[in-house]
Design goal:
The protein starts with about 25 loop residues before the first strand and ends with a strand. The longest helix has 10 residues, at about 695-705. It has seven helices and 66 strands. The strands form 13 sheets. Strands 5-6-9-20-25-28-31-34-37-40-43-48-51 form a 13-stranded parallel sheet. A 13-stranded parallel sheet has the order 7-10-21-26-29-32-35-38-41-44-49-52-55, with no helix packed on it. It is mainly beta.
Length: about 800
C-alpha cells in the first residue's frame, strides 16, 4: 500500500490557464540593523531579515531605438531622447508598445531614481527595459507614510490615498483553510520599515518588534518600532508581459500588493496577480523573456510569476523578503533559472510545509543551476508535479550546483516527476529532509553533499529521502506488480485528475506518481539535526513494493556521524514489499542484511572533526584533499550527469574522481598550493616502464623516440622548484631492468643505487610533500615484482584494480596536488 508523503492539503499547482484570463549586488550605505522575524520553535538558525541589496550590473544604453526616462523628464513635452527624456516608465511603454510589430528591439532606458509606478504591461515583442549604465533604478508600488505620533507604539491615520483595494480578500479559496499563516495574509496589504517587511497582527493584539496593526475601520496604522522609511504597498503588480523577446534588466522592484493566487483573481472589479514581475504567454508558445540582474523584494505575496512561455530565463536575480514565494513557474518548457538568490521568502508563513523559495510545476527540460536557496520559511526549491524531460537521450531536467541551506522545510524537493538529474548540490542545515525525491521515476542523484539536515522527527525525513507515493493512475500496474486499486492501499487517480498522474502505458515519459529507477551515487551524507537517519528509502505502507524496486543502483556513498548514537539509525531501508522499513545502525549491518548493496560505500564516525571536509565546523564543505574516503574514488559520471554538472557544456570531460559535490555556488576555494606543475604519466607498452615527468616536451619526445606511447594523462601536481614544506623526489634508472624509479626517501635512494641496480642518477624529478595537508592528496606506489615495474596513483579505484592484477601496494610514498 502506498501513502502520500507527506500528507498535505491539496494546494494549487499553478496551472495558469492564461487564455481564459482578462550580476552582483551591494547593500546601500544607509543599511540599518537587521530585524529578527524567525519562526518560533523551529530549532533552526533564525531568519534575520535585512534591507534587500541593490543591483549593480552595468548596462550601456543602445545607440539606436532607445527611449529614455528620467525623474526630471516630462511626459508632455519630452521626446524620449536622452536630452529630452520622459518622466515615467508608463509613458515610455505607451510609446514603445505602439512601435511597428517587427523584429526591431526597442529599449527603454531608465535613469537613476525611484519610480512610484506599477500595473504596467509590455505588449510589444522585442522590448528591453533596463537601467542606465550603473544607475540605481527603483520601481516602487508603495506610498511613503510619515507623520507618526507616539513614542512606541507609533500611530498614523492613513490619508491621501485609498487603502481599500489592498484590504481585499483576494487569496484563492483553496488556500484559506491552511493554518499557521500571519493575520491578514489573504490580503495584499503590506508594510515595510527601513526596507524590511513587517508582520501583521490582529486589531487589538499586542505588538512586538517587527510587527504592525492596521484597523480598516479607523484607517489607523500602528507600528511597534520607530517609523523609519515606512512604506505601504498599493500597486497590484510592477511589470507584466505576454510578448516574446522581452527583457527586464538591472531593476530594483519592491513593495507591490501581489496576492496569493493561482495566477490572478478579480475582486470588486480589480484584478490581482500573484507576482510583481510576470513573464507569460496566453498559451504554451515561444517566449524567450528574460529577467536578469534585478532585485524583486518585499512584495505582499509572490515576487516573480512565470507561465506557458518557452525558453524563459531568470538569471542573476535576488528574490528576497516576499510574503509568499520568491518565484513560481508552470508549464514553461526549457525554463532556465541560474545564478539567483531566493532567500527569506514566505514572510507571511503560508502553511510552511507547502511553499518554497521557488516552486515550479510542469517544467520540461528545465535547468535550475548555481542558485542559492536559503532562509526561506518553507522549502528551498520545490518541483511539485510534472518536471522532467521531453527527450531523455538529449536532455533531462537539471537541478545542479545549487546551495540550499537554513530553510524551514526541505532543501531541494523533487515530487511526482521524472527524468531529473540532481547533482553536485550542497544542502545543509534545513529543517526537514535535505534532498527529497517523492513519487518520481528515473531520477539521477549524483555527487551531492547533504549535511546536518532534518531538525524534525517527521516520518520519511533524512539527509536524503527517496519515497514512493500513494497516488497512481487507476488500474495501472505499479512497479511491484500490483494493480493501482483502493484494495491494494493505493489512491487511484482517474484521467484529468488533480495530481496529473498518468498510466505507465503512456510510455517512458509518463508521470506515473511512482518512485522507481532512481540512481544514488557518490553522495556525502553527514550528520543529522534529529534522530532521523542519514538515508531513507521506502514505500511507507509496505504492501506495494520496496526499496529494491525504487533504487535502480546505489553505491559509493560516504556516511559520517559524530557518534554512533547521533543519530542511532544510519540507514532506513524497506527491503521488500509487505514489510516495514528496517533501521540499520551501521553500514556493516546494512550490508549484512542486504548483500551486494553499497559495497564501495564508507562509514566514518567520531573524532574531533569531520574527516570528509576541510572544516565542517565553519561550514566549509569542500572535500579534504587528504581524505581517501572522498578523493580519488567514486563511480564515473554518466553523460546526463556530466552535462548537468557542467551545464551548458554539451560534451564535458570527466572530473577527477571524488565523493560529494564537485562544484557549487560560492564554493570555498583553497589558497593557492605550492604545487601546480602537472606530472605527465606515460608508459612504454613494450617494456612496461612508467615515466613521470613535469616536462611535457620530455613526455612527447619519449612517445616519439623511445616508445612511451601510452598517454595516461596527468598523474598529480607537483612543484618544479624547492619550497617550504616540500622535499625532492629523486629519479633513478636501472639499465639492467630498463626501469625508472622515484623516491622521496634519501635512504631508499641510496639503497636502490647500491643494492638494486638503479645506478643512473637522473637528479630530482620534482618536489612533493612528505606529510598530508590542505592542498595534498596521497600518492601510492605499487610494484609488480615479477616484471620489476613500479607506478604511482592517487586513485583508489586504480589502486584496487592494480592490486587485483597482481601488483603489490607499497602504500603512501608522498603527497601531491590532486590531478585536475
Amino acid at each position: 500500500m502506498k501513502t502520500r508523503i507527506p500528507e498535505k492539503p491539496r494546494t494549487l499547482t499553478f496551472l495558469c490557464v492564461l487564455s481564459l484570463l482578462p550580476a552582483c549586488f551591494t547593500l546601500p550605505e544607509d543599511e540599518t540593523p537587521a530585524e529578527d522575524l524567525a519562526t518560533a520553535g523551529q530549532g533552526l538558525v533564525a531568519h534575520v531579515y535585512s534591507r534587500p541589496p541593490l543591483p549593480t550590473a552595468y548596462y550601456e544604453p543602445p545607440t539606436a531605438n532607445a527611449v529614455f526616462v528620467a525623474p526630471g523628464g516630462n511626459d508632455a513635452t519630452g521626446s524620449g531622447t536622452e536630452a529630452q527624456p520622459y518622466q515615467t516608465l508608463g509613458r515610455a511603454l505607451q510609446v514603445v508598445n505602439a512601435k511597428p510589430a517587427d523584429a526591431t528591439t526597442w529599449t527603454v532606458v531608465l535613469k537613476a531614481g525611484t519610480y512610484r509606478e506599477g500595473e504596467l504591461t509590455v505588449s510589444r515583442a522585442h522590448v528591453t527595459v533596463q537601467r542606465y549604465k550603473s544607475d540605481v533604478v527603483s520601481l516602487r508600488g508603495s506610498v511613503a507614510v510619515t507623520g507618526f505620533s507616539g513614542s512606541g507604539p507609533y500611530t498614523q491615520t492613513l490619508t491621501g490615498f485609498d487603502p481599500t483595494p489592498v484590504e481585499a480578500d483576494c487569496a484563492d479559496t483553496v488556500l484559506l483553510g491552511q493554518a499557521g499563516r500571519d493575520y491578514g495574509s489573504e490580503t495584499p496589504f503590506a508594510v515595510t520599515r527601513a526596507g524590511i517587511p513587517l508582520r501583521r497582527v490582529a486589531p487589538g493584539a499586542a505588538l512586538s518588534s517587527g510587527q504592525y496593526r492596521y484597523d480598516a475601520a479607523t484607517n489607523v496604522l500602528t507600528l511597534a518600532d520607530s517609523p523609519t522609511e515606512v512604506e505601504v504597498a498599493l500597486k497590484r503588480w510592477a511589470l507584466k508581459t505576454n510578448a516574446p523577446g522581452v527583457k527586464f534588466a538591472g531593476l530594483d522592484v519592491q513593495n507591490y500588493a501581489t496576492c496569493t493566487v493561482n495566477w490572478s483573481r478579480t475582486v470588486n472589479g480589480l484584478t490581482y496577480y500573484k507576482g510583481a514581475v510576470l513573464l507569460y504567454r496566453d498559451s504554451e508558445s515561444d517566449s524567450g523573456a528574460v529577467l536578469e540582474n534585478s532585485t524583486v523584494a518585499n512584495n505582499a505575496a509572490n515576487g516573480v510569476g512565470v507561465a506557458h512561455g518557452r525558453d524563459i530565463r531568470l538569471s542573476g536575480n535576488v528574490l528576497v523578503n516576499n510574503g509568499w514565494t520568491g518565484a513560481q513557474a508552470s508549464n514553461a518548457q526549457r525554463l532556465i533559472v541560474d545564478n539567483n538568490v531566493m532567500s527569506y521568502n514566505n514572510v507571511r508563513r503560508w502553511a510552511n510545509t507547502v511553499e518554497a523559495g521557488m516552486k515550479v510545476t510542469f517544467i520540461r527540460d528545465g535547468v535550475v543551476f548555481n542558485n542559492l536557496f536559503e532562509h526561506n520559511a518553507a522549502n528551498g526549491f520545490w518541483c511539485d508535479q510534472g518536471c522532467g524531460a521531453t527527450d531523455p537521450g538529449n536532455r533531462w531536467f537539471v537541478l545542479a550546483r545549487n546551495v540550499a541551506r537554513y530553510n524551514d522545510d526541505k532543501g531541494l524537493f523533487y515530487e511526482v516527476s521524472h527524468h531529473g538529474v540532481l547533482a553536485s548540490n550542497l544542502v545543509h542545515d534545513n529543517g526537514r529532509t535535505g534532498i527529497a525525491v517523492f513519487g518520481s521515476r528515473d531520477v539521477q542523484l549524483w555527487n551531492n553533499t547533504a549535511v546536518d539536515n532534518d531538525a524534525s522527527s517527521d516520518s520519511y525525513s533524512a539527509n536524503i529521502s527517496i519515497v514512493d507515493d500513494k497516488r497512481c493512475f487507476t488500474g495501472d500496474t505499479v512497479p511491484g506488480g500490483k494493480a493501482c486499486t483502493t484494495a491494494n492501499g493505493c489512491d487511484p487517480q482517474v484521467a484529468g485528475n488533480y495530481d496529473h498522474c498518468e498510466p505507465s502505458s503512456v510510455g517512458p515519459l509518463a508521470n506515473t506518481c511512482n518512485a522507481e529507477a532512481v540512481v544514488l551515487m557518490n553522495n556525502i551524507l553527514s550528520g543529522s539535526l534529529s534522530a532521523r537517519p542519514l538515508l531513507n528509502v521506502e514505500d511507507p505502507n509496505a504492501t506495494a513494493y520496496g526499496a529494491p524496486a525504487i533504487l535502480q543502483a546505489h553505491d559509493f556513498q560516504a556516511y559520517y556521524r559524530a557518534s554512533t548514537g547521533a543519530p542511532a539509525t544510519l540507514i532506513r531501508f524497506q527491503r521488500a514489499a509487505n514489510t516495514s522499513a528496517a533501521s540499520y545502525a551501521s553500514l556493516t549491518a546494512f550490508r549484512t542484511a542486504n548483500p551486494g548493496r553499497e559495497p564501495q560505500s564508507v562509514e566514518r564516525g567520531g573524532g574531533t572533526r569531520n574527516p570528509f571536509f576541510v572544516n565542517a565546523a565553519t561550514k566549509n564543505f569542500t572535500q579534504d584533499p587528504a581524505s581517501t574516503d572522498v578523493w580519488g574514488r567514486g563511480q564515473a559520471l554518466p553523460s546526463e550527469v556530466l552535462k548537468a554538472v557542467y551545464w551548458p557544456r554539451t560534451a564535458p570531460a570527466q572530473p577527477s574522481a571524488r565523493i560529494g559535490a564537485i562544484e557549487w555556488r560560492d564554493k570555498t576555494v583553497a589558497a593557492p598550493c605550492a604545487v601546480n606543475a602537472p606530472v605527465h604519466h606515460r608508459r612504454n607498452p613494450t617494456s612496461g616502464d612508467h615515466l613521470f615527468t613535469t616536462m611535457l616536451s620530455e613526455a612527447e619526445d619519449a612517445a616519439r623516440d623511445w616508445g612511451y606511447t601510452d598517454n595516461l594523462g596527468v598523474a598529480f601536481l607537483a612543484s618544479t622548484t624547492a619550497a617550504t614544506g616540500l622535499s625532492p623526489v629523486y629519479r633513478l634508472y636501472s639499465p639492467t631492468v630498463l626501469e625508472h624509479f622515484w623516491t622521496i626517501d634519501a635512504a631508499e635512494k641510496q639503497s636502490a643505487q647500491s643494492n638494486y641496480g638503479y645506478t643512473q642518477d637522473e637528479g630530482i624529478g620534482f618536489h612533493a610533500a612528505t606529510a598530508s595537508g590542505p592542498c595534498w592528496v596521497p600518492v601510492y606506489r605499487l610494484v609488480h615484482a615479477a616484471t620489476s615495474r613500479h607506478t604511482f596513483t592517487t586513485s583508489q579505484a586504480e589502486r584496487a584494480s592494480l592490486v587485483a592484477g597482481g601488483w603489490t601496494d607499497e602504500g603512501i610514498k608522498f603527497h601531491a596536488g590532486a590531478p585536475q
